[in-house]
Amino acid sequence: MTxxxxxxxxxxxxxxxxxxxRRYAAGHGNARVLALRELDFDPHLHFxxxxxxxxxxxxxxxxxxxxxxxxxVVATPLWWGSVPAVLKGFFDRALLPQQEYRxxxxxxxxxxxxxxxxxxxxxxxxxxxxxxxxxxxxQTQVAxxxxxxxxxxxxxxHRMLGVKDAGPERIATWLGNAERLGxxxxxxxxxxxxxxxxxxxxxxx
Length: 205
Known about the structure:
This protein is of the alpha/beta class. It has one domain (4-192): 3-Layer(aba) Sandwich (Rossmann fold), CATH 3.40.50. Helices cover 35% and strands 19% of the residues. It has six helices and seven strands. It has a five-stranded parallel sheet, with helices on both faces. The longest helix is centred in the last third of the chain and has 20 residues, at 168-187. The chain is globular. It starts with a strand and ends in an 18-residue tail after the last helix. Residues 190-203 have low confidence and may be disordered.
């Protein structure tokens, strides 16, 4: 059975995003939910990349979990076209050059994480019909510029749009899909899992 790490990027444990992460983990059976709100770390990269900051114990533990996972899942709401500050701060502090990625002599990025499969579970109040006009830059930011750069080559994005207007039936469908995604990833691997266009999770994003 594969091991999965689910990064919950929402500051509120009562959020839709947090429930999404829990349901995926329940379906998977061999998954760890890394709720960033519970970690004790400074999200600010005070010196940029000129000077390396000392890693807090929680960050060191999170980095070990990233290196050991077969599958990495990021669950996050979309706020102002980006992700919550705690998630961005986690990426800044935990994903470091020569550790999670590096550049070759030709100047090309090379990912160093062993996981090759990932999912982005993206929640937004934006209705589906407005997405082509507003865009979803967080999808590109996290899936391509973060996960793939660090070596997770196959990243599937599942968008839950129109969250604030979603009724109980739609929410129940998202929740069920989340659990099924976890079960698929554990038993068959993501390479054989059927894509879900708009999947997964309750209440507000």
